[in-house]
Amino acid sequence: MIAPLSSDTLAAAEVCFAVASWLLYVEPDISSVAEQVASRQFASAPFGEESDDARQGLRFLDGWCAAALRASEVPEGASTDSAAAFLGESPAFAEAVAELRREWLRLFVGLGTPEASCLESYYVEPNRHVFGKNVIAVREVYRRHGLEVERLHREPDDHLGLMLGFLSRLIAEEREALDAGEGQRAAALAGEGDAFLTEHVLPWLAPWRYAVERHARTGYYRGVGAFVFGLIACYAERFGICFDGEARAFRRRK
């Protein structure tokens, strides 16, 4: 049984999944991180805060942002735009973002093997084979919704950041169907989200999260690991799926 969500709740989940997608998939740069810090983007989230993990992740992320503001000596009372501009000119902030960039590369890209790979294939394919059957299966799901990876055949489609972006798209389509009074289509899209999570994300999400927890050195990426895990776990509950801490696996309630 899939729990229906209101249009407002779906819109909130859509935004959070899009942000989570960006945090994993896009290399951090000064302008984007400055905007996060200046706006205190991670002080709260519109969806997912029911999860202890998501709240912990937000605390780590917001703590890093607050420390970056202090270290860069941003004037008190500065507007968001002024603070972002100030951060963009701060050598201390530039070094803080450079540290994030090095960590993002080490955790998720790697010169050899990433310390916390974001690829489904790494966890489920024999010999960690990239561009295997899982990539093909994920690609076909994307194509049914008119999506294609920009660097097709050069980058695996089963990157967690891409999959979170796809889930954000599915949630948006469900919301649009719901708002248009197309209840059956909205339910079908929710069912697709259930199937995609169950088959391609949840089986390896816990090992990925523990890898981030073990190897991340900054509060920013410790926060990313906890927030992404908690956000997905919170959304999975609408499908009757909960995380079993003892088994370190997701289980569907009977």
From TrEMBL:
Q: Record's InterPro entries?
A: DMSO/NO3_reduct_chaperone (IPR020945), TorD-like_sf (IPR036411), TorD/DmsD_chaperones (IPR050289)
Read off the PANTHER family from this record. CHAPERONE PROTEIN YCDY, DIMETHYL SULFOXIDE REDUCTASE CHAPERONE-RELATED
Q: What is this protein called?
A: Molecular chaperone TorD family protein
Q: Does the keyword Metal-binding apply?
A: no
User: Keywords in UniProt for this one?
Assistant: Chaperone
On whether Chaperone is a keyword of this UniProt record, the answer is yes
What is one Pfam family matched by this protein? Answer: Nitrate_red_del
User: What domain of life does the UniProt record list for this protein's source?
Assistant: Bacteria
